[in-house]
Amino acid sequence: MVQAHSGDLKKSSFPKEYSGLRMKVSFGMGAPARVPWIGLLEEEMSVSNGINPVYLYYKDLNILILAYGVSETVESKDSWPIEITNSVPTISAHLDRDVPRYGDSYVFKAYKIEIANDNVLFKYYDADKILSNNDLESDLNIILEYYKKIFSSPTSPISKEVREGLFYMEKQLEDFLIFNWDNSELGKRYDLIIKDGELLSQQYRTEIGPIDILAVDKKSKSYVVIELKRNQSSDDTIGQITRYMGWVKDVLKDDKVKGVIITGQYDKKLDYARKMIPDIDVFLYKVDFHLDKFEDKIN
Prior knowledge:
By secondary structure, this protein is of the alpha+beta class. The chain has helices at residues 2-6, 82-85, 91-95, 133-149, 160-163, 170-179, 185-189, 234-251, 268-275, 294-298, and strands at 17-18, 21-26, 37-41, 51-58, 63-70, 106-116, 119-124, 190-192, 194-195, 198-199, 202-204, 211-217, 223-228, 258-263, 280-285, 291-293.
């Protein structure tokens, strides 16, 4: 941030790679850029023709965006999966203004920047909490992990299933929920558990098996057990989530623990079971990725 305001365009001090990805940096060519950037790229991608996670620093606004970056120079044949393009705001939409460049890239995280001498403070765009290096590193690692996973197909840089937004495995849905937590209905209600920069919420370990996602209610600060309904019966799903809720109550000492079941379609058996367990909510997911309350869908 400090270098971006200094007029120094040198980038030799930056590493050539990070977390197995190529790193590209620009403070401008010949003159300082209005939007300096740092991008991380798979081998198949380039900053002028492709997609990649990128930090974009809007100097005039003192705003840093960690973005699902989209190249501007050439219209790339590749694109972010549809669950990103259909549900995540572009930078221009998120900031509600025209920006000098890269306005069509998609926001993963937005930070407010405060610079005093050589000290730089980071806060989320819509919050006042000062972020630690661990917070920033955790954000970066989450988007990088997602980026790497969409390149996992041996025949295509982006697998057909992911490109079309089909959650053909519950693991895909679980990953998408984590990677886009702040843009989902869950993120409005619950916080993920992060400790020392490490995400603990996903596949939370217990001696009776892993919880799909363990979160914390923003208001009550109680734990929330989130389970995805797989190809199993409603009775099995209810039994599984209540078992984990019992574990949280006993081991984590939380008498007000709640449960959330996420499923892809309405199920009458699950509806009847839900009516008798008031501490469990059910959400339906859609491919364009909004979450609707279960009872709102059937009333």
